[in-house]
Specification:
single chain, alpha/beta, Rossmann fold, nine-stranded mixed sheet, 16 helices
Length: 466
């Protein structure tokens, strides 16, 4: 269930939605072939939209000899409603139904993948945006322990975001859910005949806030309990024992994590209107400054000085979006990589910086940009190999094949490699990451200066920026 364009009801949604699409490298499996590693894909969509049907795993499964399962989970208030009544009834943390759906899918796949030729002992859970933040939660959830070995986090800041570990206080989360459902009781909500009435317009947007507190709505903040999260996963700092506690409890569920961001991950929300109608001259500068003040408040002038409009080929459009993407996604991703390494996990970091092409899901929303303009979610068609008609030359074909090979290698072995490129594990002191441009290459300290500058302006700017 989800609203369509303009809040209307799509014709193809249903509460009967908890399905998985399974793609295998061959059409049949008779039990005699070697079983193949598995990648479970969790879609994005801001926790209010999206579907596993939007992702065709045929090409990736066939090329990389893996099984790919794309799953659905409940969205909006149906997936992330929290209340004291619900907590008392279920004796569990409220507000995490959507995440629990993914856990159920993960358990089902672990138990049944062998029927389709999958090797459940070689399972990688992967997601993008909202799906990636669900992966963040499963990285540390006691309910997912032992169900997967590796994780892929694409443009999903575990340390902040909307449903990362920087959750809002419990009281705020419960109040947000109450407002979104017009303060109806659990019995009254269950008496609503059509679930779509709970998912429309501004009411749906208010529901979004309820998921912020999902991870904090547990009363056992300092213990490892049996709920979705092991406690209040507020943003770890250098002085925080969070990762040390997880490591000692054996609760870091992945031995290796591949994670990264895109060069213009900030191209979302209210930037879209500006990108569709780019302005020039003084008018452009005034709108740019207005947007910067709206996003950065009292720190706008300092951020604007660090990211001046004239330093970007696309002018204000690029200067608007780049610091938002850095603060909201890229810098928290690098901090997450540092914490993973400290917890004895292997981390591989990337920065996708090529596009757009016609497969770019944000392509119709901006009229500027060129090579280097990689918007939020634009890496997905390159990884899935789903838009071959988009690639304009042999170099672009090689890039998508190389990205499929790296993701496939990680799913199979835990090391993302190709025959021509070695992707070195992340070392925080070097700040090394793979620059995914037309010619992929390893780069040291690619984003270190920008992230340090944002921290220097105001440490609170990230990772809580959403």
């Amino acid at each position: 269930m989800q609203p369509g364009h303009g809040g209307t009801r799509p014709t193809d949604v249903s509460e009967d939605c908890l399905f998985a699409n399974i793609y295998t490298p061959s059409a049949s499996f008779d039990g005699t072939q070697p079983r193949v590693p598995i990648m479970l894909w969790v879609h994005g969509g801001g926790w209010t939209a999206g579907s596993g049907n939007s992702y065709d795993g045929t090409a990736l499964a066939a090329r990389e000899n893996i099984m790919l399962a794309a799953v659905n989970y409940r969205l909006g208030v149906l997936g992330f409603y929290a209340s004291e009544e619900l907590v008392r009834e279920s004796n569990a943390t409220g507000g995490m139904n959507g995440v629990n759906d993914v856990i159920v899918a993960l358990k089902w796949l672990y138990a049944n993948a062998h029927r389709f030729g999958g090797d459940a002992e070689q399972l990688t859970i992967a997601g993008e945006s909202a799906g990636a933040e669900i992966v963040c939660n499963l990285l540390v959830s006691p309910l997912a322990t032992g169900l997967f070995r590796r994780a892929i986090i694409e443009s999903g800041p575990c340390l902040g975001g909307v449903m990362g570990w920087g959750a809002h206080p419990r009281d705020e989360a419960l109040a947000a859910s109450a407002n979104a459902t017009q303060h109806r009781t659990l019995a009254e909500l269950r008496a609503v005949e059509d679930a779509f009435t709970l998912l429309q317009g501004a009411q749906q947007q208010r529901t979004v806030a309820a998921r912020d507190g999902s991870g904090a709505s547990t009363k056992v903040e300092d213990s490892v309990d049996g709920h979705v999260l092991p406690g209040n996963m507020a943003r770890p700092t250098d002085a925080s024992p969070v990762f040390e506690r997880l490591q000692s409890a054996g609760l870091l569920n992945a031995e290796a994590v591949l994670l990264g961001s895109n060069s213009y991950d900030g191209l979302q929300s209210y930037y879209v209107a500006a990108e569709a109608n780019p302005l020039t001259g003084r008018e452009s500068q005034l709108v740019y400054s207005y947007n910067m003040r709206g996003l950065w408040g009292a720190d706008a002038a300092a951020v604007e000085a660090r990211f001046p409009a004239e330093s970007f080929p696309s002018g204000r459009n690029g200067a608007d979006v780049r610091p938002a993407g850095d603060a909201g996604v890229t810098c928290p991703t690098l901090e997450m990589a540092r914490l993973l390494v400290a917890a004895q996990a292997t981390a591989y970091t990337y920065f996708f910086s090529y596009g757009p092409v016609c497969g770019d899901p944000m392509g119709s929303m901006h009229k500027t940009g060129g090579p280097g303009w990689a918007s939020h979610a634009s890496e997905i068609p390159w990884v899935f190999g789903t838009f071959p008609r988009c690639y304009r030359n042999s170099s672009e074909h090689r890039l998508t094949e190389s990205m499929q090979d790296m993701w496939g290698s990680f799913v199979r072995t835990g090391e993302p490699r190709t025959s021509s490129l070695v992707w070195n594990a992340h070392e925080p002191s070097r700040g090394n990451m793979l620059l995914l441009d037309l010619v992929p290459r390893m780069v040291d300290h690619l984003k270190t200066t920008d992230c340090e500058a944002l921290l220097g302006i105001n440490r609170s700017l990230w990772p809580h920026l959403s």
